[in-house]
Design goal:
alpha/beta, eight-stranded mixed sheet, four-stranded mixed sheet
C-alpha cells in the first residue's frame, strides 16, 4: 500500500454564474488527499492519513475519497470543523484564502504503532499540514517510524499567505527535504523558498545527502529531474486548453509515484537503480496526467481509463 499524509479540505473554486457574475462551488481538495485520490484512481492500493471531520464537508471528503478507492482506515475522524479554502486564479496561478483554525486537519495527531509500515511501500507528505509547528512535529514523528521500511516522498506545496515566519518555515522544509527519498516541487514553490532557478545546485545537494530523486515541475514547460544514476532529465508537457491549474501538481505527484510503483522502483534500493528511460517514461506520464487535470475545474485527477500507462 501507498500512503499520503496531510491535508483534506474543501476548495471553493471560481465558476461563472448564469448571470455572468463570479461565483464559487465546493470541491473536495487538499494536496495530500488529492495525491491519494490520484494514486487510487490510477489503480494503486492507497490509503490516506490525516484528520477528516464528521461535519457536512467532512462527509463530502470521505465520500469522495472512498468513491475513488482510497482506504480511510488510517484517517482520524473528529467533530472538529473542516478546513475551507477559497480559490482565485491570478496570472494563471491558483491563490488561496484558508480558514483553518482548530480544524480536523490542523489538529491531527499521529497515533504511533497504528500503521504497519513494514507493509507500506511509500509515504507521501507535504502541504499546509507542515506550515504549523504542531502538524510538522506529528508528521516528523510518523516519518521517523516509516523511514526504515518505506520510501518517503515530499512536496512542500507552499502557501506563503499562511507562513508567519519564513526563516523558520524554510528551516522546517529543509529538514523534511533531508528526510525524504523523493522531492517534487513546482518552480513557483522553489522560487519562493530558494530564489530563481538554482534548481541544479539544490538537486545536487539533495542527491549528495543521500536523496534519490529531485523533481521540479514547470507548468506548461514540463518537468526537470535529477537522479544519482540516471542523471539530469527534462520532459515536456502536452499542450492543452487550461481551465484551471488546481490540483495539477498533485496529479503529477500521484502519477509519478504510481509509475515508479508499476516499475517496481519505489523501494529505496530500487529507486536508486532507476534507469534513465524508466524515469523519462514516469515523468512523461506524470506530465500527461497533470495536463489532463488542467482541462477541468478543480482537483480532479484522471482515472486509469483516461490515461495510458506504458512501463
Amino acid at each position: 500500500m501507498l500512503l499520503s499524509c496531510g491535508d483534506a479540505l474543501i476548495d471553493f473554486v471560481p465558476v461563472a454564474a448564469a448571470d455572468g457574475r463570479e461565483a464559487v462551488r465546493p470541491a473536495v481538495g487538499g494536496s495530500c488527499l488529492n495525491v491519494a485520490v490520484g494514486l487510487a484512481r490510477l489503480g494503486a492500493p492507497t490509503g490516506f492519513v490525516g484528520g477528516v471531520s464528521t461535519d457536512l464537508f467532512g462527509r463530502m471528503i470521505a465520500d469522495h475519497a472512498v468513491a475513488s478507492g482510497v482506504d480511510l482506515r488510517y484517517a482520524t475522524r473528529s467533530d472538529r470543523q473542516t478546513t475551507l479554502a477559497f480559490v482565485r486564479m491570478v496570472a494563471g496561478e491558483s491563490q488561496y484564502a484558508f480558514y483553518d483554525a482548530e480544524t480536523a486537519t490542523r489538529e491531527w495527531t499521529y497515533a504511533q504503532g497504528k500503521i504497519p509500515f513494514e507493509t507500506i511501500e511509500a509515504v507521501h507528505i507535504g502541504s499546509t499540514t507542515l506550515v504549523n509547528q504542531s502538524g510538522a512535529v506529528e508528521t516528523a514523528a510518523m516519518v521517523a517510524d516509516a523511514k526504515s521500511s518505506a520510501t518517503i516522498s515530499f512536496d512542500p506545496n507552499c502557501r506563503p499567505n499562511l507562513v508567519k515566519d519564513k526563516t523558520a518555515y524554510l528551516a522546517r522544509m529543509d529538514r523534511f527535504i533531508d528526510s525524504a527519498d523523493i522531492v517534487r516541487m513546482s518552480d513557483v514553490d522553489f522560487d519562493y523558498l530558494y530564489g530563481k532557478e538554482a534548481y541544479a545546485a539544490k538537486a545536487e545537494e539533495f542527491l549528495a545527502g543521500g536523496g534519490s530523486l529531485f523533481v521540479i515541475t514547470r507548468g506548461m514547460k514540463g518537468a526537470q529531474a535529477w537522479h544519482p544514476a540516471a542523471g539530469a532529465i527534462e520532459v515536456g508537457a502536452p499542450a492543452v486548453t487550461v481551465v484551471d491549474t488546481i490540483g495539477a501538481g498533485d496529479s503529477f505527484q500521484a502519477a509519478l509515484l504510481f509509475a515508479l510503483h508499476k516499475q517496481g522502483r519505489l523501494g529505496r534500493s530500487g529507486l536508486k537503480d532507476t534507469k534513465a528511460n524508466e524515469l523519462r517514461s514516469a515523468l512523461s506520464f506524470a506530465c500527461s496526467c497533470a495536463a489532463l487535470t488542467c482541462t477541468r475545474v478543480g482537483a480532479d485527477p484522471p482515472r486509469s481509463n483516461e490515461v495510458a500507462w506504458k512501463c
